[in-house]
């Protein structure tokens, strides 16, 4: 194989490698932190045994009233929480009436007021305490 053919073949392989890296590998969100977040989410869902079905078998028919009953000084929700799926479904499907930036703390939070007047807080991503967000965080 002549030198010119080798150079052309090497250039083609390099272009294929760059396209593969840019379009296939980098578009997959497979960072170690993301994989750990996914594993933690699956562990939480398995541990809670949550059914994401919007059914309430409770005398209180509002998911917000049910969730308000859970809060005690040492926990936000009990370990056995069959209604958690209905509460999560309500948070995901109710219309957002108003949104504001959350107050206090060092991380970005959105305060949302849902249909029916329920206030919820949304934190898009958790960062370590010493992480510095470069650029515009909002």
Automatic annotation (TrEMBL):
Single GO molecular function: ATP binding
Alphabetic keyword roster: ATP-binding, Nucleotide-binding
The organism's place on the tree of life at top rank: Eukaryota
Binding residues annotated for ATP, in chain numbering: 107, 123
Name recorded for this polypeptide: FAM20B glycosaminoglycan xylosylkinase
Gene of this entry: FAM20B
């Amino acid at each position: 194989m002549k030198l010119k053919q080798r150079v052309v073949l090497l250039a083609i392989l390099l272009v294929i490698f760059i396209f593969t890296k840019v379009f296939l590998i980098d578009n997959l969100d497979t960072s170690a932190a993301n994989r750990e977040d996914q594993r933690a989410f699956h562990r939480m869902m398995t541990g809670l045994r949550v059914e994401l079905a919007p059914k309430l078998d409770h005398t209180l028919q509002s998911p917000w009233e049910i969730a308000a009953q859970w809060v005690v000084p040492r926990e936000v929700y009990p370990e056995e929480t069959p209604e958690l799926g209905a509460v999560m479904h309500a948070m995901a499907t109710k219309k957002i009436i108003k949104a504001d930036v959350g107050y206090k703390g060092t991380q970005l939070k959105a305060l949302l007021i849902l249909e029916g007047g329920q206030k919820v807080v949304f934190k898009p991503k958790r960062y370590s305490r010493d992480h510095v967000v470069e650029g515009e965080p909002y």
